[in-house]
Amino acid sequence: MYLKNALSLMLATVFLLSLPELQAVETQQAAKPNIMVILCDDLGYGDLACYGHPVIKTPHLDQLASQGMRLTDCYASAPVCSPSRAGLLTGRTPNRLGVYDWIPEGHPMHLKRDEVTVAQLLQQAGYDTAHVGKWHCNGMFNSKEQPQPGDHGFRHWFSTQNNALPTHENPNNFVRNGKPVGEIEGFSCQIVADEGIHWLKNWREQEKPFFLHVCFHEPHERVASPPELVEKYLDKSLYEDQAQYFANVANMDLAVGKLLKALDEMNVADNTLVFFTSDNGPETLNRYGKGSRRSWGSPGVLRGMKLHIYEGGIRVPGIIRWPGNIKAGQEVDTPVCSVDL
């Protein structure tokens, strides 16, 4: 129960320090940690080098794990994206939320306006908040008919409903605070990381602690990645599609490294809790059949995949770093779920 207690202690500390009678004590105010949650899309339990992948190189996430705690029994709150994301944000099991499956564009299903999110609670505790990347908690994205990220506690948001479109290279469907951005040059995870960094350095309320919710579209089924990354994996892959998937994970790792470097540059890394995980297990070749060559995610030694309630569908990578509070280099087998946040 150590990990759950640590997360609960962190949030309890935040709320205690937000009480008016404590706000005059400068040293206590400074104790509020910044929080960065990094959520990947369909990253399998076996897709990172620090979780045993024999080919994919993930040096930044490996380093993050060495500086904090690597969870061997970390679970998503659902085996598919929308319910899992809603569970993480609210701390409630998805069946209680009415978000019971992935949400197609235009669908009436959505995270209800009266659900309380961790972003709203942290705002009440004096935090500045931002969401960057995939949202997928509603079907009517950027519409007044359903609540948007800003209605769920994020003062700044930069999002897509689901995937970056028309592809994850040079996408044109990102929306920033309700305004479509148009085509953006680059690859999705780098675009998302750059937005988060720009918010951290230029747009956030600097006198407040921050909560940054980063949701990458990668690795998913193989999506667009820089050709030079794909090239690195061609001779280690059976097919180009497999090399593309490996590059998706590697590109996401580079984006994580960029975010962590920004924390160092801002001199806030030592007071920032970073939680990295995935929304569910991977797409695998079992999804469409081996002849499809589409889905190269790895559940490692686990049975099952995305959509399955076997371990492979819900047990995911989990890494937490909180310098001075979580001992570096730990491997912890205490079961924890994303709803514990």
Give the tally of β-strands. Answer: 11
Instruction: Give a quick account of the main beta sheet: strands, pairing sense, barrel closure.
Output: 11 strands, mixed
Oligomeric state as shown:
single chain
CATH class: Alpha Beta
Annotated CATH topology: Alkaline Phosphatase, subunit A
Low-confidence sequence ranges: 12-30
Mean pLDDT: 92
Q: Distance between termini?
A: 13 Å
Helix tally equals 9
Q: State the order of secondary-structure elements, H for helix, E for strand.
A: HHEHEHHEEEEHEHHEHEEE
- Going by CATH, the homologous superfamily would be Alkaline Phosphatase, subunit A
Q: Return the CATH architecture.
A: 3-Layer(aba) Sandwich
How many domains? The number is 1
Secondary structural class: alpha/beta
Shape: globular
Strand content: 15-25%
Determine the fraction of residues in helical runs and give it as a percent range. 25-40%
The radius of gyration is: 19 Å
Describe this structure as you would to a colleague:
The chain has a single domain, classed as Alkaline Phosphatase, subunit A. Helix content is 29%, strand content 18%. The protein contains nine helices and eleven strands. Strands 1, 2, 3, 4, 5, 6, 7, 8, 9, 10 and 11 form an eleven-stranded mixed sheet that branches. Helix 6 runs parallel beside helix 8 (240-265) and helix 7 packs across helix 8.
